[in-house]
Amino acid sequence: MEQVKFWDIKSEIRVVGVDDGPFEPRMKGDVLLVGAVFRGGHWLDGVLRTYVTIDGSDATQRIIEMINESKHKGQLRVIMVDGITFAGFNVVDIQEIFKQTSLPVIAVSRKRPRMTQVKKALKNLPDWQRRWKMLRSAGKIYKVKSRSCVKSVYMQIAGIGRPDAEQVVKLTSTRSLIPEPLRVAHLIATGIVRGESAGTV
Amino acid sequence: MEQVKFWDIKSEIRVVGVDDGPFEPRMKGDVLLVGAVFRGGHWLDGVLRTYVTIDGSDATQRIIEMINESKHKGQLRVIMVDGITFAGFNVVDIQEIFKQTSLPVIAVSRKRPRMTQVKKALKNLPDWQRRWKMLRSAGKIYKVKSRSCVKSVYMQIAGIGRPDAEQVVKLTSTRSLIPEPLRVAHLIATGIVRGESAGTV
User: Fold this and answer.
1) Could you say which of A140, A148, A197, B162 would form a disulfide bridge with A187 (CB–CB 3.0 to 4.6 Å)?
2) Residue B183: exposed, middle, or buried by beta-carbon count in 10 A (0-12, 13-18, 19+)?
3) Interface ipTM > 0.90
4) Partner A contacted by B71 (CB < 8 A)
């Protein structure tokens, strides 16, 4: 499969972390999606936002547009997403994001995604086979020791080799187990929606 | 005047930086106000938000509520605000914020506030004498060499001595001339309103 080759991963590599805001069960409408543009694991360089439909299927397209239209696009090297479903079951096609942005994608999860449980839940939604196919296309789930030697996070990757992806996850996990671009995108998205951010790992 | 005494300013001192989002000229309504809770000049610990009325007079009260209702309140040591007017001419009373939160306030500006120009503009607003009185009560404008030895920022202070305030400004200006809590609050507020953040110093 096609991949971006990293000759050298710089400590100030530009990474955008994407996470969604909270919403109430049975709510309809749009949910805030935030992109936190980071230099490595240390400096916030910019903030992007878009909206995605609850249980809709526009997350992939909205993320592609948000990245491609950003003035940071030229500097960005990697896109990180918090898992591969946003706003309920609005599934993200990480292969498609890679194809349309030419930037490798790393989906990071705190817990190992439980595919059989997800499949069961998906079946309540229209168009579930297409969503399931997208989820499956995110590929193999890898365990990464991001920061401590005890605890792990999980990643799925598109357009990047496993060793390079691991190195980017480790390099950017400066503050917690979760890479800083994702930790901060989460704080911003929950803070803006709720008035006060909710804790992360 | 009453002041908070700092025996020792720790490098991880919790500071919240408050800045407003952009709005179009002649717009009416509310403007987003963001609080970025930082540990010193390095780590974002949380995000707060509220709304203030364009050219209204609720900014002081909204900031007091946002801080006092936050779960971070117990850890916070200093409030920084980006200048003393938000959402147009919604003037902030930094003495009142200090009184109602018991936290010292530092108002930081990139440029020296031009009081005669501000006074002229204020006169177009209802209730201008009250706003002018609040602006004047922010007190003396001090020049601070925050980071480089060449360029300066300006501060006005409430509930804190000049040497302590200078130290907090210097300690938190890790990335640019502007203290990190204010730089990041600005990036978040503009990013969320516009879809992409606008540059700071």
Assistant:
1) A197
2) buried
3) yes
4) yes
